[in-house]
Here is the input.
Amino acid sequence: MEIIVALGIAVLTGSGVWLILRPRTFQVIVGLSLLSYGVNLFIFVMGWVRVGAAPFVSVGQAASDPAIFADPLPQALVLTAIVIAFATTALLLVVLLVARGLTGTDHVDGREPEQ
Amino acid sequence: MSELASHLIVLPILVPLLTGAMLLVIDEPRHALKATFSVASMMLLLVTAGALAVRADAPVTHVYALGDWAAPIGIVLVADRLAALMVLLTAILGMAALVFALARWHRAGPQFHAMFQFLLAGLNGAFLTGDLFNLFVFFELLLAASYGLALYGGGTPRVRAGLHYIVINLAASLLFLVGVSLLYGMAGTLNMADLAVRLPQLPAEDRSLLEIGAATLAVAFLVKAGMWPLGFWLPATYTSSCAPAAALFCILSKVGIYALVRVWFVVFSEGSGAELLAYGGMATLVFGMVGMLGSQDLGRIASFSLVVSSGTLLATIGVGGSSVIAPALFYLVTSTLGTAALFLLVELIERSRAPGANVLAVTADAFNVDDGEAEPQELVGVLIPATMAVLGLAFAFATLLIAGLPPLPGFLAKFSILAGVLDKTSIPAGAWPLFGLVILSGLAAVIALARAGVRIFWADAGRIAPRVRLIEILPVAGLITVCLVLTVFAGPAMSYLRQAGDALNPPANYIREVLPST
Here is the structure.
């Protein structure tokens, strides 16, 4: 289980890093999105990988061992991170469109490199 | 009354947040109404920040538990001297930038005041928060607002620089998250005081993973602070953004330094990595110095002087550790005020020059000055007499502040930094290079600014008499006056800052107030 999650994070982050180093704005935004998926998974996993553990402690179970429950805090953190990443990506998308309109190219520097 | 006063801590976040939300729903053409709300909020903020700074000057650290949930489960705001000082600095800068914007910039595009208020809320939150995840949230809040303000006014140079700024900061935010989650995974808490208690108890085999997390976090902060080689986005973004936004952005790069100081001293009680900070800071200093000397555009000189001040702060903290926190903070305050005044002046001065006068400056930005930028409309209102003389005087003051020459407090700040670094039985390894670089950077600032000043104020070619309104020069005068007051009251200010520094290392008082049970 751990190795699958780790590989998933690695693939997402690796592709994301490769894409944000590309010269086209669309590649950069897809790269940032992939990176943020990778990071979100990473935060989630920081509560340790558990299969079938409940995130909520019900009243009767509260006194029993807390180790049988999944850690709810990373899930809350991930939710916040997703919302923020979503909003900033939307904002970046608008700026990309404006840049495309003003400079007439989708190169990140706003001009095509010399051939 | 003390019941009420304890809620003072949350006001610097709530007031701009609510004002910003309210300003969003007011119709766009009602500039006067928007400006009234914005200025009222700013005044309230200034008073609150002043009261907070006075209240923080006490043996106890004030802690505010949001929703009355005690730490470490609940979220706390902490107003110690350092946080209160930064909030006060933000309020002073914000007031100056806002008054400046009232002359014309706030009408140049949509939602200036709302973004301005959100930026203030994010800044104050980042300074006051007591846990790392909320630090991230407030960082994102202030960054989101700063994206809008960096692009405010439109035009190709702004959009091009803004694009780089946004992408780099988004990537840095992801690093921030990785660092925060690694710390959480290792220690099981994100409250700074709780982290400080738990980290020393961790087993030795977890130590390396913890340090990776801390380093990742530090990279995210250093991107914000503009350390070389992470700060190449800074000059282009700050030069191209409109004057009031650039003035407020001066404190933005200091947020990174604040966060670094806070986390480094409180959570890790000055762990490893000091050499990296010292030499990285010195590289930043050199980069900023060369940049200042190499630029002809006054806006770029101002931006690079910000890089120099970041570099000086990082190198000082890296070399001197906790013993030089007080001089470093004094330098932070004066350099922030001085650079902000210069950014405001740049726009007024540029008005005296015929368009295209900067074409000599062979920079990409200079070539693209005039494509499609929405310059705000013509000025109306009280104009000041003897404009060139007044601007020249203000420019001279700003130069003295940034270069660190007497009688302005920039000199006192640099002097006390050097005295603090050398005032030890064993002089630390990086002290002499730092000594040389700080003095050289002052010389570079004098050369760069004097050269620009001679060209602007003494060379006549292509000059047109600028029209400057009273409320545009007032903020500049205000910032310089604050610095003059700081010179006169340098003693009390320094003892306040010294206590702020002492409280950071060791942070026993901080931990005791946040976690009363331990």
Remarks:
- Chain A has one domain: 2-50+70-103.
- Residues 2-50+70-103 of chain A form a domain with the Helix Hairpins fold (CATH 1.10.287).
- Chain A has a mean pLDDT of 83.
- Chain A touches chain B at residues 20, 25, 28, 32, 35-36, 39, 42-43, 46-48, 73-74, 77, 80-81, 84-85, 87-89, 91-92, 95-96, 98-99, 102-103, 108-110 (CB under 8 Å).
